Amino acid sequence: AADEYFLLREAAASRAIPGITAAEPHLDWSAVVGWKDGIVNRLNNGVTSLLKKARVKIVEGRARFVDGKTVDVTGETGTQRIAAKSIVIATGSEPVELPMLPFAREPGGKIISSEGALALASPPAQLVVVGGGYIGVELGTAFAKAGSKVTIVEATGSILPLYDLDLVKPVRARLDELGVEVLTDARAKGLAGDAGDLVIEGANGAERRLQADSVLVTVGRRPVTEGWGREELVVDMDGAFLRVDEQCRTTMRGVYAIGDVAGEPMLAHKAMAEGEMVAEIIAGQRRRWDKRAIPAICFTDPEIVSVGLSPQEAKAEAQRSGGEIVIGQFPFQANGRAMTLARDDGFVRIVARASDHLVLGIQAVGAGVAELSAAFSLAIEMGACLEDVAGTIHAHPTQGEGFQEAAFKALGHAIHI
Ligand code: NAD
Questions:
Q1: Which of 160, 242, 251, 403 has its CA 20 to 30 A from that of 389?
Q2: How many C-alpha atoms does 118 have within 13 Å on its Cβ side?
Q3: What distance in angstroms lies between residue 140's CA and the mean position of ligand 1's atoms?
Q4: Element (H or E) spanning 8, and its range?
């Protein structure tokens, strides 16, 4: 919705494709949030009816383990005890709270988590985002497009520190265009003064105060491993997560764990794949986790996609076995479709083993590249070589041609660059 509104504003300011102008758009935030809630409800209700259709009994309430085969569920009508041969823990994760910036307990409070940000009555005039990771940059971008003045405060030397700088650069450039201020090597210290300014400290120890109507804290999420009776179980931990094996079994017989509580990456599609596998294992089938790659997408502007190994990871792995890697990169500046979308920033990059050209990793940054993740994941899951990607006809004009071109480039015979 923020994207749509932003595009109309760009047209109103005559900054769209030459020849397209529009009247200044109006944003009815509560209507937009209502529309979003409608989609969320539709998806939730859809899942509920699927469960009903599959004759799954749903018990609403808070569960607490009594032992490895029994839980007590406390709901509106009291507590009931449920015993089972197999139990799947999927308690997920929760936002990390900074001690000096505790989340507001009431609606309308200043310090909010991602959940609070999605429930705001209107885009704040001034929004400060603490933590420039996935959520911070995604939501910061959305609010900037919805009209907020956004400042992102990131503790490390770059936003999205999980990605290499080549991938982050186009996102950083776009944030500048959107008027988002990015402060790196900066930490939030707390609120100060009558107006509740956010105090931040730079690398050199210098303090600065930032005015803010809302402070969105997105410094990571942590698995929910307390509050449901873990102490009644004998389960090993793996850092902050529950330890699971390649069948998502915890160290206690019959107790499985999936999703954010069972380890990185904390992504919905990883949880979904684990859940599907565990259901089949419990149903008596022979399954184990044998995925080659889990795609990760940062829904920023432009979007970042990463599947498999980054160039650095691939290089490190190759060095261990005395091998080498090849990399092919294709810029969207040379892609017709990207030009007609008026967005030719970004590129597709492919990383392969030099000896047999097995594709090890694929990354892309560009407007709308999230949709390319399916092709990238399929290539890696099927064990594609550079020749497979280069030898596949990619439709013209599409951004996907950049994938084929990157493979050509890695093979040493790029056609369009
Ligand atoms: P994150 O780990 O991606 O980023 C947190 C950022 O906060 C880091 O860059 C870190 O350096 C910074 N930081 C930490 N402490 C700080 C401080 N005191 N001051 C300033 N900066 C500080 O975490 P997130 O963005 O909260 O997301 C949590 C998880 O949710 C992610 O790990 C991801 O798996 C998942 N997620 C995924 C998607 C997606 O796939 N598109 C979207 C949202 C969330």
A1: 160
A2: 12
A3: 12
A4: helix 2-12
**Mean predicted lDDT score pLDDT of the chain:** 97
Between the CA of residue 341 and those of 107, 183, 297, 357, 366, what are the distances in Å?
39, 30, 20, 32, 11
135 Cβ below 6 A of ligand 1: yes
Give the atom of ligand 1 at the shortest distance from the alpha carbon of 188: 19
Mean pLDDT over residues 291-305, rounded? 98
* CB 367 within 8 Å of CB 302: yes
Average pLDDT over residues 122-148: 98
What pTM was computed for the model? 0.95
Is the pLDDT at 69 greater than 90? The verdict is yes
Ligand 1 closest atom vs CA 137: 25
Contact 308, 293 (CB under 8 A): yes
Query: Pairing state of beta strands 296-298 and 303-308?
Result: antiparallel
β-bridge mates for residue 181, sequence order? 151
Angle, alpha carbons 329-331-336 (nearest 5°): 135
User: What would the mean pLDDT of 114-127 be, rounded to a whole number?
Assistant: 95
Give me the amino acid identity at 324: E
DSSP secondary structure, 9-51, as one string: HHHHTT-SSTT---PPP---HHHHHHHHHHHHHHHHHHHHHHH
Cβ(187)–Cβ(100) below 8 Å: no
Q: Is the CB of 259 under 6 A from ligand 1?
A: no
Q: Is 271 touching ligand 1 by the criterion CB < 6 Å? A: no
Residue 381's alpha-carbon distances to 242, 274, 330, in angstroms, are 26, 16, 22
pLDDT band at 108 (very low <50, low <70, confident <90, very high): confident
Question: Where does residue 253 rank: exposed (0-12), middle (13-18), buried (19+ CB within 10 A)?
Answer: exposed
For the stretch 303-348, pLDDT in tens is 999 999 999 999 999 999 999 999 999 999 999 999 999 999 999 9
Question: Cα–Cα–Cα angle for 287, 229, 265, nearest 5°?
Answer: 45
Q: Is 396 a catalytic residue?
A: yes
Nearest atom in ligand 1 to 160's CA: 9
Q: How far apart are CA 237 and CA 93, in angstroms?
A: 15
Say if CB 369 and CB 305 are below 8 A apart: yes
In order of 94, 163, 366, 375, the CA distances from 166 in angstroms are 30, 8, 12, 21
Is 112:216 a contact under the CB 8 Å cutoff? Answer: yes
Q: Which of 394, 396, 413, 416 is catalytic?
A: 396
CA nearest ligand 1 atom 33, residue: 266
- Reading the block at residue 320, the tokens are 């261990």
